[in-house]
Design brief:
- It is built from 5 helices and no strands.
- With 175 residues, the chain is mainly alpha-helical.
- Helix 1 runs antiparallel to helix 2, helix 2 packs antiparallel against helix 4 and helix 4 packs antiparallel against helix 5.
- It starts with a helix and ends in a 6-residue tail after the last helix.
Length: 175
């Protein structure tokens, strides 16, 4: 996780610097927004598919029955498709395929939420900058990216490409 974060933060900052050149420090708020979003997303793309010990408790009392189905479903799936069978667990092919789908949905959710968060934060910073320094309108006339469309695209990317990459990365757990 530390290696992933170090690579992500450094490459994001380098890419932002290359893209913005002389405006890098003028637009540091946008740079930091994008870097923080990337850091949070990288944390979840590494952490969610990682094999773990299940912490879901299955008690016989009737508390939390509304979540019983979800707990039963998620507790019956491996954390990734290539997770080794643990003592008392023998995951079949259907459960492993479902783990890829559920993992993709989790990462798609992370992508959508972080995409909306980063887009709204960026738009708020842009508006605040316009109010505080109207004369120094950085990027005046620059077309702003649509927040929901960007979030949806990022969600699809994380749910498919990132999910499949990190599922395959866990291949060593099976073999």
């Amino acid at each position: 996780l530390a290696i992933e974060e170090a690579i992500s933060i450094s490459t994001t900052l380098l890419a932002q610097y290359e893209r913005r050149k002389g405006r890098f420090f003028e637009e540091i708020d946008y740079v930091l927004t994008d870097t923080i979003r990337g850091s949070v997303v990288d944390f979840f793309t590494v952490w969610l598919p990682a094999p773990t010990i299940s912490v879901l408790s299955f008690t016989d009392d009737d508390s939390g029955q509304s979540l019983g189905f979800v707990k039963g479903l998620l507790g019956s799936l491996p954390d990734n498709a290539f997770q080794k069978n643990t003592f008392g667990r023998n995951w079949n092919m259907n459960q492993r395929v479902a783990a890829v789908i559920v993992g993709g949905l989790k990462l798609a959710g992370v992508g959508f939420i972080s995409g909306v968060g980063a887009g709204v934060s960026s738009d708020l910073l842009y508006a605040a900058r316009g109010l505080l320094k109207p004369s120094a309108s950085v990027g005046a006339g620059r077309k702003r990216a649509p927040v929901l469309k960007s979030a949806a695209v990022y969600s699809c990317f994380l749910g498919t490409s990132a999910n499949l990459r990190y599922q395959v990365t866990c291949w060593n757990n099976l073999v």
